[in-house]
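#help-structures
NK: newbie question, is this the right format to request a structure? protein is Circularly permuted ATP-grasp type 2 domain-containing protein
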Amino acid sequence: MQFSYDDYQTEGFYDEMFDAQGNVRLGYDAFKQRSEQLSMEEMTRRHQAAERALMAMGITFNVYSENEGTERIMPVDIIPRIIPSKDWNKLEKGLIQRIKAINLFIDDVYNEQRILNDGVVPRDLIESSKSFLKACIGLKPPKGIWCHITGTDLIKGDDGEYMVLEDNLRCPSGVSYMLENRELLKQTFPEVFARTDVRPVSDYPSRLLQMLQHISGRPDPTVCVLTPGIYNSAYFEHSYLAQQMGVELVDARDLVVHDGYVKMRTTKGFQVVDVIYRRIDDTFLDPHAFNPDSLIGIPGIFDVYKKGRVALANAPGTGVADDKVIYAYVPRIIKYYLDEEPIIPNVRTYICREEEDRKYVLENIEQLVVKEANEAGGYGMLIGPKATKEEHELFRQKILANPRNYIAQPTISLSRVPCLIEGAIEGRHVDLRPYILYGDEINVIPGGLTRVALNKGSLVVNSSQGGGSKDTWVMW
């Protein structure tokens, strides 16, 4: 049977590959033409080969809540998501604008606090944030950069326009899947790549290393990646990035504060570490400064950092801008610091701490998506149209008990991309996580991780909730 898109249904949703009349969108011609030269059996075979390759390469993540096993692959779909150059150029400008403003905001919050004094962002909102670290007040990170690595989640609604869904500024994950998906697609469709002008993403590890070296301010600095350990859900990524950059992967057992510096244990004795790309959350980083129960941090590291003797990426305290309630204020933050309107808008967001918004959310919870301020991975979330009356009532009570901790947004019909599902072509909802590096300049990697809600009808794209991924092709 020949592979074909003839029976593919686009009604009711914005489709990334076809317009409402069934015409193929800009950028997809070469892929559509090549894929339709293959049989369904051959497409299925290539899809299965890609997933086997993921497992063979050890590209897995851990799922803490599952009893039957700790590791699984993140399923990959071999039909790419393709973004025309014009669309990407606007996204790039919007993301640079956003990161610039957020970095200024974080620095201000921990220093002059102008935005709080002027009432643009409520002071009590910051001071009640779980991610606001009083120990970071007065902190000045190297080069004035707080958010070195960001993964910003973007979505499209029915009108096909991009919106920012949330910002991930603490330890954004998924970049290893972006890199490996590209290698897999090159192997799966080498003839398409030969004919298609796709911007590369393979230089991400070298760009990451250059950024880390830049913030050290020292010639030939020693860089390492700090992981919580093998049981962390993103451990593969930690080891992968360390290997790709050619630096050491370390955990708390390998680092020690000695003679006022952070040093790494080696077979030749202690070696001073200049830069640490940390994949440990702020509060676990140093049991002396933050959570005294942390077993995965390095005692005394924060003091060394404050003295400028080690650089950390991202800077401690950055998570204050990762709060989903703070997200609702980002358009005001951009206007305040840059005197510009946001290039990429936020999703309409209701702030439950504000009385009028809270009243609306409680009365319309069946139509809304409700999120906890500091949860991630699809946890702590209610999707109103798919939830039961009991779940609606439970979240109403949660909101009333702690309104500061919740926001709500309209249920948006995310755009869809064709996927190969059990020998048939079906549409599945997607989002996009581009990765942004902030070193001597702000670099937006041309692509990112397209996450796919593989369960039919689902809007939850997180890997921990049954999601998969696609390669993202940005055209020149």
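mod (FA): yep, format's fine, and the tokens are attached above. The first strand starts at residue 60 and ends at 62.
NK: thank you!
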